[in-house]
Amino acid sequence: MSQAWKNLLWLQAGSCGGCTMSMLEQGASGWFAELKNFGVRLLWHPSVSEESGVEVLTILDRIERGETQLDIFCVEGSILRGPNGSGKFNRLSGTSRSFLDVTRSLATRADFCVAVGTCAAFGGVPAGEPDPTDACGLHYDGGESGGALGRDYRSQKGLPVINVAGCAPHPGWIIETIQALATGDLAAEDLDAFGRPAFFAAHLAHHGCSRNEFYEFKASARVLSERGCLMEHLGCKATQAVGDCNQRAWNGGGSCTHGGFACISCTAPGFEDARNFHATPKIAGLPVGLPLDMPKAWFMTLAALSKSATPERVRKNAEADRIVENPRRGK
């Protein structure tokens, strides 16, 4: 291989494997072809590579010895620090080493370190209460910087951990981050406050939602089978959740809200601690979570005006499981 090729290593920690499953949906030609097109060589991945056992340990050993360049280090899944900070709840198979130790060692060698999914970014589902494994992300423990690598961690190229958050993240977010790193097109200023690439984190899941007409008129669904906006009663956080989920769909056409399920803001730290994903938290009958960029007073005023102007067609369709009245010219 030419020295121009970039080496990528992908490891799975406390993971369900969902991020890898999402990645397998990438592109018509598949993500292996896309990696090749951008000059990225996959050193090893636990689910798709042929090497196992001693062969894998040799690959890792060569990286730690500095004999193999590690350009991009991807970690999927939470880092389990328990019990008592030893990391022994999650050991590297065939060794006595904890995954915590292996990750810290490899991260110091990597030009770039990428947390694939919210578990690797912030702790995710394994970090939900009561968190017996003391799970955390690479660079964050929930919403607090630190995590497994410590708040001062920087990769060999001077970047913090790049958090491709999501449960699971869109395959495009993953491959485009890798491609940007391989071509030198991702810098510190391209990350948001939580280390998420701005090309997807500068959007809200609300943008492009197929239910936006119902949102505009505050015509709300009461149960999940109805077509109305899911924000008022059914826990949808799309107006607060970063991600272009409804602008680039999964598998050619799917998204949470398009499929009839509320956005749970899975790209954010702490999303796993919601007590009920199907209900909107309220105080005095008013939703607690409001759009990120709108003052509460404005939202309440606009909501009242919108409801008073809701066309009967929109109201009927919002409370049905299908379109029951089509648009027509007003009299």
CA-based shape? elongated
Number of domains: 2
CATH class of the largest domain: Alpha Beta
CATH H-level superfamily title of the largest domain: NADH:ubiquinone oxidoreductase-like, 20kDa subunit
Written as H for each helix and E for each strand, in order along the chain, the element string is: EHHEHEEHEHEEEEHHHHEEHH
Query: Largest beta sheet: what is the strand line-up?
Result: 2-1-3-5-9
Number of contiguous helices: 11
What is the strand content?
A: 5-15%
3D structure, described in words:
With 331 residues, the protein is α/β, with parallel strands linked by helices. The protein has two domains: 196 residues, 3-Layer(aba) Sandwich (Rossmann fold), CATH 3.40.50.700; 122 residues, Cytochrome-c3 hydrogenase, C-terminal domain (Cytochrome-c3 Hydrogenase, Chain A, domain 2, Irregular), CATH 4.10.480. The protein is built from eleven helices and eleven strands. Strands 2-1-3-5-9 form a five-stranded parallel β-sheet, sandwiched between helices. It starts with 5 loop residues before the first strand and ends in a 13-residue tail after the last helix. The model has no long low-confidence stretch (mean pLDDT 91).
Per-chain topology:
Elements: E1 6-12, H1 18-23, H2 31-37, E2 40-44, H3 54-64, E3 72-76, E4 79-80, H4 99-109, E5 112-116, H5 118-122, E6 135-136, E7 140-141, E8 144-145, E9 162-164, H6 171-182, H7 198-201, H8 212-216, H9 231-234, E10 282-283, E11 286-287, H10 296-308, H11 312-318
Parallel strand pairs: 1-2, 1-3, 3-5, 5-9
Antiparallel strand pairs: 4-6, 7-8, 10-11
